[in-house]
Design brief:
Elements (H helix, E strand, L loop, with lengths): L14 E8 L15 E5 L2 E6 L3 E5 L4 H14 L1 E4 L10 E5 L12 E5 L2 E6 L2 E9 L22 E5 L4 H16 L5 E12 L4 H11 L4 E5 L2 E5 L2 E6 L2 E12 L4 H12 L2 H19 L2 E5 L5 E4 L3 E12 L5 H8 L7 E2 L1 H11 L10 E6 L4 E5 L3 E4 L3 E10 L5 H18 L6
Parallel strand pairs: 1-5
Antiparallel strand pairs: 1-9, 2-3, 2-12, 3-8, 4-7, 6-7, 6-20, 8-9, 10-11, 11-19, 11-23, 12-13, 13-22, 14-15, 14-21, 15-18, 16-18, 17-18, 20-21, 22-23
Helix pairs in contact: 1-6, 2-8
Length: 425
């Protein structure tokens, strides 16, 4: 997690934030000079950052509001020069929040303000640099590619918090409780671990961005992944959330995949799971938005490894809620927790057998105007000096089957697994 001692600029000091337009820098991830850098990239657009101008950690139910208060104070002390005034220019922070407000491990949520941010949006590119006000500004006008990190060395896979058999037993217990009427849906996750020699996180980022261009590739303080699920985007008054729930593995044959997609759209079990997730998002956004558009039927989102039922919910902001407040209102959605939320959350704590940490929590970026994007930290891994910890979760409803859910979880390990060029056992 971010260590305040590493912060180059304290939030107690005044600082200068300067944004300058630049020529197209090309691939953003290839410009990251530090494997510890931050990233939020989709289809070659987004933000990457490096260095630490400031950082903060927080826990508890108020972690989102604490982050917003800290950020507002930090921005208040900033002298800002921003000729672009578009989402992502000017002061920008990256954040990754824990799924559980009080994780068993005690690991906190984190906010990082990079020293340098490189961005591209709608054909425009820019650099933002943070400096102390009493020092000459560092204003590079070009960014050069860095050397391509090599593939990692040997990968040694090991069991996670539970064995596959233990996790299937937990799934069966959840199904029993659903059938007895205790809860409608519960999302159970599992993990596997890998010891990896000579791993550079930028190698993972590049592979994920290349293999999953429809996803948001992210890296925030050791949490690296490619999520297909947009928790919330705020762009001025426009609010968007993409809901995913209901999954089938792709087979690599167009005709077979078309047939599987049709079956997914007609699956009572998957449609039920999806409906719970859509309703939870719509209810949360209704407190802040008007003119909500909620499609009556989902569409199928095809990724390289799986197909999902997907629904894009949109609305017009009715108040001045920043993206952090919207993320707080939405988390946890039924897509990563279940319904009713409180009962599902209690069952996760009881039966999952692990601490999710920041997996399935909001991850993304926000700026000084309240705009930003947060995804749900899925298809991801925690990267450390020892290796990786991979996560995958499945929505359990009345029609679920432990064997099928285990197969689905294995399919969701594929993005990180393939990026390492070696399958787990």
């Amino acid at each position: 997690m971010p260590r305040r001692a590493e912060a180059a600029l304290s939030s107690d000091l005044r600082h200068r934030v300067v944004t300058v337009p630049i020529d197209d820098p090309g691939d953003l991830i290839e410009r990251l000079p530090d494997p510890r850098g931050t990233a939020w990239v989709r289809r070659s657009e987004g933000l990457v950052g490096w260095g630490i101008a400031a950082s903060w950690e927080m826990t508890g139910e108020e972690r989102f509001s604490r982050a917003q208060r800290w950020w507002s104070e930090w921005c208040r002390k900033a002298d800002v020069e921003d000729p672009l005034l578009i989402p992502g220019s000017g002061p920008v922070a990256f954040a990754s929040f824990t799924f559980d407000p009080d994780p068993q491990s005690g690991a906190p949520s984190c906010v990082i303000v990079p020293r340098v941010v490189l961005g591209r949006r709608d054909g425009r590119a820019w650099l933002t640099v943070v400096d102390p006000v009493n020092e000459p500004p560092l204003l590079p006008t070009t960014v050069t590619p860095v050397s391509v990190p090599p593939p990692p060395g040997d990968v040694e896979w090991s069991q996670g918090s539970q064995s596959a058999e233990q996790w299937q037993e937990a799934v069966a217990e959840v199904i029993r409780r659903i059938n007895s009427g205790e809860v409608d849906k519960v999302v159970l996750a599992r993990d596997v671990e890998a010891r990896v020699r000579d791993l550079d996180a930028r190698y993972l980022l590049r592979r994920l961005a290349q293999d999953y261009p429809e996803c948001w590739t992210f890296s925030v303080e050791g949490l690296v992944g490619a999520t297909p699920e947009l928790l919330v985007r705020r762009t001025g008054d426009l609010v968007v959330s993409r809901v995913l729930a209901g999954t089938v593995k792709r087979r690599g044959d167009e005709t077979v995949d078309d047939s599987l997609a049709a079956a997914l759209l007609g699956s009572g079990k998957d449609l039920e799971e999806h409906e719970y997730a859509v309703h939870s998002v719509a209810r949360a956004l209704a407190a802040h938005c008007t003119d909500l558009s909620v499609p009556t039927r989902p569409h199928v989102l095809r990724l390289a490894n799986v197909q999902h039922l997907a629904t894009d919910v949109t609305g017009s902001l009715a108040d001045d809620a920043p993206v952090l407040a919207l993320a707080a209102a939405l988390h946890p959605t039924a897509a990563v927790c279940g319904t009713p939320t409180e009962r599902a959350f209690a069952m996760i704590r009881e039966l999952e057998g692990m601490d999710r940490g920041r997996y399935a929590g909001p991850v993304g970026w926000f700026d000084s105007r309240g705009d930003g994007e947060f995804g749900i930290a899925l298809r991801c891994a925690e990267v450390s000096a020892e290796g990786l910890r991979l996560f995958a979760g499945c929505g359990i409803v009345a029609g679920s089957d432990p064997d099928s859910e285990l197969a689905e979880s294995r399919a969701k390990f594929v993005p990180i697994r393939d990026a390492l060029d070696s399958p787990p056992s």
